[in-house]
Amino acid sequence: HQDEPDGGVAQGAPGGGPAGGDGERYPDSDALLAGAGLDGERYADLDALLAALDDGGAVPDFVLVDCGAGGAGALPGAAHERVGSVLALLQRWLAEERLAGSRLVLVTRGAVAARGGESPDLAGAAVWGLVRSAQSEAPDRMVLVDVDDERESWRALGGALGSGEPQLALRAGAVLVARLARAGLGGRLVPPAGRPGRPPRCR
Predict the structure, then answer these.
(1) Distance of CA 149 to the CA centre of its chain
(2) Element (H, E) at 33
(3) Are 81 and 73 in contact (CB under 8 A)?
(4) pTM of the entire structure?
(5) Which has the minimum average pLDDT: 75-79, 89-93, 97-101, 169-173?
(6) CA 77/CA 105 separation, integer angstroms
(7) How far is the C-alpha of 63 from the C-alpha of 51, rounded, in Å?
(8) Max alpha carbon distance in the chain (Å)?
(9) For the ranges 17-31, 120-134, 187-201, which has the lowest average pLDDT?
(10) Cβ atoms within 10 A of the Cβ of 80, count?
(11) What is the 8-class DSSP label of residue 19?
(12) 152, containing H or E segment
């Protein structure tokens, strides 16, 4: 069992207004919070959140940003648009001292191949590459969460945030994390027969 975060959660989108979903399987921004069992306020963008802090609002423990709906269009334009909006958000987030104790949670949809047979969304994968690079310099400031189109996965989001993992994939309600594994010996190079230990010569 994973503990859910104790503090508040804010939610918005990197490029302006809150990013929505479509149909029953992709919840909209309000349903994202409700389905995850998280109690939080909804803000149109980072400026709206900062304005709330100016008015005496509490600093949230987590700020969720739905990155799954931005950059619609043909590649590479879609990837460039989505990465550009997320980059601008990251730069402002890291520069804002009042949010130093908060974690920015960037939610993508199908951006990584967490299980066999999955084909990542290339624009979302570009966002992951950008954020992973930023995490190497500020590891405690942001979290990557990739979800599928199952409501069980959205409901697992609260517990996933309590795990403390910087990169997560939610599939059918299961929380998946990347782990390093020792490489097997089946693919090692074998010297030619009759010449043990001697590498082949190139001519």
Answers:
(1) 15
(2) helix 29-35
(3) yes
(4) 0.75
(5) 75-79
(6) 24
(7) 15
(8) 79
(9) 17-31
(10) 14
(11) P
(12) helix 151-155
Angular region, 193: left φ>0, alpha ψ -120 to 50, beta rest: beta
Radius of gyration of the chain (CA): 20
The strands making up 40-42's β-sheet, listed across from edge to edge, are 40-42, 9-12, 62-66, 103-109, 142-147, 167-171, 174-176
Quick one: which of 109, 108, 123, 119 has its CA closest to 75?
Answer: 123
Q: Which residue bears the tokens 């950008």?
A: 130
3-class SS of residue 16? strand
- For the residues of 74-128, what is the DSSP string, one character each? STTHHHHHHHHHHHHHHHHHHH-GGGTTSEEEEEEES-S--STT----HHHHHHH
Angle subtended by helix axes 122-137 and 77-95, to nearest 10? 20
Give residue-wise pLDDT tens across range 127-160.
Answer: 999 999 999 999 999 999 999 878 888 888 888 9
φ, ψ of residue 134 in degrees (nearest 5): -65, -35
Pair of tokens at residue 13 = 């989108």
Mean local confidence (pLDDT), 73-96 = 86
Measured distance CA(93)–CA(35) in Å, rounded:
26
| Contact predicate 116/160, CB 8 Å | no
The Cβ of residue 164 has, within 10 Å, a number of other Cβ atoms equal to 11
